[in-house]
Amino acid sequence: MSRPGEHIAAVQSAPVHPDVAAPTALAIEISNLKKSYGLKPVLRTIQLNLPQGQRMALLGANGAGKTTLLRILAGLSKAGSGTVCVHGLDSRYALQEIRQQVGFVAHQPYLYEELTVLENLLFFGKLYAVEHARERASVLLQRVGMERRAKDRIRALSRGQVQRVAWARALLHEPRLLLLDEPDTGLDQHGNDLVESLLVEHTARGGSMLFTTHNLDRALAWSDQIVILAGGRVVYQHESANLPLAELQQRYREVTQ
Ligand SMILES: Nc1ncnc2c1ncn2[C@@H]1O[C@H](COP(=O)(O)OP(=O)(O)OP(=O)(O)O)[C@@H](O)[C@H]1O
């Protein structure tokens, strides 16, 4: 189980490379990425680009490596080999800068259970050097419908409420890239409507996102591109527009069986 600050420690120890800030029109650029756990290969030669401002749905069966890929992009896990760039920043040299560009909503909320909702947001605001963090936290808590729970400890909240605070934490520093691991899990209908409107606002600001889901219908509705992982590789990639759900379901069955 990861601790809330684990990624920060990894970030602070990363060396800075002089050529890390080359301009690029790609939010994500992955080349020859490999990752194994022990002797078990999970990602084998992943090639994947996400243009800035685009939304990508990452699909695949349980254990396909979706979370592993998102964790590498978020700087929580190291690539085995290959290159991973976020907005032109190479993860081998610029983890700290990448962290500033990325908002991650994962299975675990990366919040401190013993701190209150507001204390958590102020802590992360400090970590990300967010200007006027208190005001920003207040706006976001209102946005996710949690302003009345600001003084409650995280451990006193329901799972869906924690998820809402995790959204506020992820959006606090106005990230250009959102990485969302099954953002539609555990939320009620209001929660899903909220997530949908947050995503619309994010993309209206020019932001990009990569999200995982097991709901093919939602994958099509929320994305510009569909990608399916199987056997540690990208086995299918298609624009979402004009891709009928029945066809996606058929292809998904074919490539993941
Ligand atoms: N820290 C770890 N140590 C060892 N193996 C791991 C670790 N994390 C993930 N794995 C393994 O890597 C594989 C990919 O896991 P991952 O969580 O990336 O899959 P996923 O596509 O997100 O699955 P799901 O749809 O079930 O969430 C799995 O076989 C998993 O057991």
Automatic annotation (TrEMBL):
Domain ABC transporter: 28-256
Gene Ontology MF terms in the entry: ATP binding
Cross-referenced Pfam families: ABC_tran
Keywords (A to Z) from UniProt: ATP-binding, Cytochrome c-type biogenesis, Nucleotide-binding, Transport
InterPro entries in UniProt: AAA+_ATPase, ABC_transporter-like_ATP-bd, ABC_Transporter_VariousFunc, ABC_transptr_haem_export_CcmA, P-loop_NTPase
Keyword ATP-binding attached: yes
CDD domains on file: ABC_DR_subfamily_A
Taxonomy, superkingdom: Bacteria
Name the record gives this protein: ABC transporter ATP-binding protein
Natural source organism: Dictyobacter formicarum
Organism phylogeny: Bacteria, Bacillati, Chloroflexota, Ktedonobacteria, Ktedonobacterales
